[in-house]
Structures are given as C-alpha cells and as structure tokens.
Amino acid sequence: MKVNTISLNSVRLNTIALNHIGEIRSGGGASKPSPIPQWIREHIVFYYDVKKQGATNETLKESAYLQDLSGKGRRMKLNNFLFAEMSGVGGYNDNFKNWTLRSVAGTADLISSEQIILRKFVSKEDAVIEIIPAKRRAFLKCNIEGITEELKGKIRLRYHTEAGYRDKILENGYFEFDSNIESDNSGFVGFISTELIDNCNITITQIPEYPGALVTDGVDDCGLVENLSSGVKMLFMTVNPIGDFNISKMFYSQRKNPIVINPFYIFTGGSSIAYPGNQDGVTYINGVLNKSIKYNELFGVKHIITTVNANVKPETSKAPSFFWEEGNTKNYCSKLAFYNSIAFNSIPTEADGFTEQELIDYVITNIIGQ
Q1: What are the start-end ranges of the H helices in the chain?
Q2: Hey, is 364 helix, strand or coil?
Q3: Which end of the chain has fewer CB atoms < 10 Å from its terminal CB, N or C?
C-alpha cells in the first residue's frame, strides 16, 4: 500500500512557509524569522492527522496504522477497529456489506462498506440489494448520483409499515432513511425498480458523520504508539466526544502505574473541570487555559485539548495509548471522533525566545487547526 506520508516541510514547518507567519518583530519595526519552527523540529515526538494522511477505511484495512507525519517513525497501531460504520474513518451509520445482493433481481456492485452502484434491474418490484430490519437496522444518510431523466420515478427504496409496503423515490442529491423511524421493522428494506432496466449507473454513497476523523466505537478500539518507551510533556489532541457515553472514559494515557494519577492522562470522571488526570500540570481548551469548563460540557463539541506537564519522566511514564489505557479494563474505552494529535518532549522556556502560549497559538493556527 502506498502511504501518503507528509514530512515536516510539507506541513508548514519550514521557514519558507513561515515568512509571514510567526515573525517576531523588533522595536525598530524590522522582523526576524520565528524560532518556533526550529524548536518544533527539535522537540516533536509524533504527529498524527487522519485527513492529511489521506486515510480511508479501505487503506486502513490494508495497514492499520496512523502514520507518524513528523518523520520520527512512531506510528500509531490501530487495534480492534472494524474500519466501517462507527469504528473507522468518517463514522457511517450503516454498512452495505451487511446488506444482501440479489442477483435474481439484477446487478449491484458493492464498492465498499459505504458505497454501492446499481447497474441493472431484471425483475420489477424486486430488491436488487436488501436488508432485513428485524435483524439489523437500516440507517442511511446518502448522496445519490446517476438518476437520469428516463429513470426518474422508477428507482425506489421499498420498506414495510403497518399499512404495508411503501416506497421512497430516489432522486439525485441527499437521501435519508431510518428503519427504526419509518418502517415497522418487518419485511425487507431494499432498492427496487418499477420497470426492467438493462443498464444504469446509480451511485449511492453514504455521508460520514465526522468527515476527516477516525471514529472509535467505545467498546475495544484503541491506538498504541510504537517505538516510544515513555511519555511526552506537551500533547495536543483534536477530538469530538460522541455523546454522554464518555463519562469515566480514557481519551489518552501515558502513566506507568494505573493507580497513580501522575504524570498525566486525559480522562472524564466525576464533575471535574476538563480534563482530570493532569493535577500537577495545566490543560488548555482551544488554546485557552481552562479553569472552568467541565468535561461533560464538551460532549458533542469538536475541540483541541492541550495538556502540559513538566513533571513527566521516563521512570514514571510509558508509551502512550489513545482512546483507552493499555493494561486497564476495556470499560475505559472512549467513543470519539479523533482528528489529529501532535506531541513534544519539552516545554518552551524564556531561553527559547517564545512562551508556552505562543507555541500553543502557533501549533493550533499553523499545524493542527488547518
């Protein structure tokens, strides 16, 4: 598999791209290049970005890794992901691989778990591809293409209600159906035609709930950082916690001893300010030092967590794990849309020529917030 690896130079960490970004101005009005890009090169530990990697469910099925875009060689191994539905890239409500192709009624191509193409209908009123809602929910949010003028009104989704079978006519554009709401969950849900059609090219593509994110199922999905034996001192992580499910769940951990809070982990518990698990450090939300926002206020909200802790040491930390804590019970697995993460092995000091806040602003503006 060809991996779309992104070097530091291509994610705006080179001085050419920074000619007008992050400059430090002198009192005389002149400017000089910011020292931040060089500091990042020297102290970066890993960098993951689902969208910039170009990850899809199909590519991750071939190689279940988020690539380390820092060039440091610390990939994230993705364990237990289905790479479909709400366990993989995008987050989809349904999986066409759970539907049944019926060649007796015609031809449909199963392109992926998210896409099908209807090609031919050789039997009127008979489903070419179907699912039994009594066994599995049919929940589609799709984009439809290929309904020509001569096909208008003929291609339909058929489903059963208490009053019998009903049809929804397919048109180009957005299409939505939920068997839990619109059917009585008996009979079948399937794509039919009211006429015989020898040749058509109707593409039905599911729309992701969380574009550009890796979605975890909250059951056993987790990610483990390779080629790293201890924790980091500064971590950025862009997430959207999915619903109230995430009470008492682990987003990230690097503590060596699961009964000791330090050095830090990102956890939701009690009625704490976001995020508990970093008691001897500080946490920022969207670049602002957090002193009041509670973790449950961030459920369903895409936000950037920045955790800073100068007390991280090799002897008290271990290789980071995402969406869970390695060695702990799977009850702590979180249900997230994960977009990106970048980490550093140091924290800026006065001698570096810029502040902690300036680094945070720079990383959010020029790297992970793009």
Answers
A1: 36-43, 50-53, 57-62, 179-182, 356-363
A2: helix
A3: N
- Asked if the model's pLDDT at residue 356 lies above 70, the reply is yes
Judged by average pLDDT, the poorest of 266-270, 350-354, 361-365 is: 266-270
The C-alpha torsion from 74 through 78 and 79 to 83, rounded to 10°, is: -170
Percent of the chain with pLDDT over 70: 90
- 58: CB partners within 8 A, 6+ apart: 83, 112
pLDDT digits over 46-56, tens only?
999 999 999 99
Measured in degrees and rounded to the nearest 5, phi and psi for residue 247 equal -75, 130
Between 29 and 31, name the one with better pLDDT: 31
CA separation for the pair 319, 253 (Å, rounded) = 9
Quote the CA–CA distance of 208 and 221 in Å, as a whole number.
18
Q: Residue 370 has what pLDDT?
A: 66
SS3 316: helix
Q: Please state, in angstroms and rounded to a whole number, the distance separating the CA atoms of residues 218 and 332.
A: 8
Residue 88, token pair as written in the block: 């993989």
Distances (CA, A) of 265 to 285, 294, 317: 15, 16, 10
Would you state the torsion angle of the CA atoms of residues 126, 131, 133, 137, taken in this order, to the nearest 10 degrees? Answer: -140
**What number of CA atoms fall less than 13 Å from residue 146's CA on the CB side?**
15
Query: Has residue 26 got a pLDDT over 60?
Result: no
57: closest CA among 27, 117, 97, 9?
97
Residues 6+ apart with CB under 8 A from 277: 253, 261, 264, 265, 266, 267
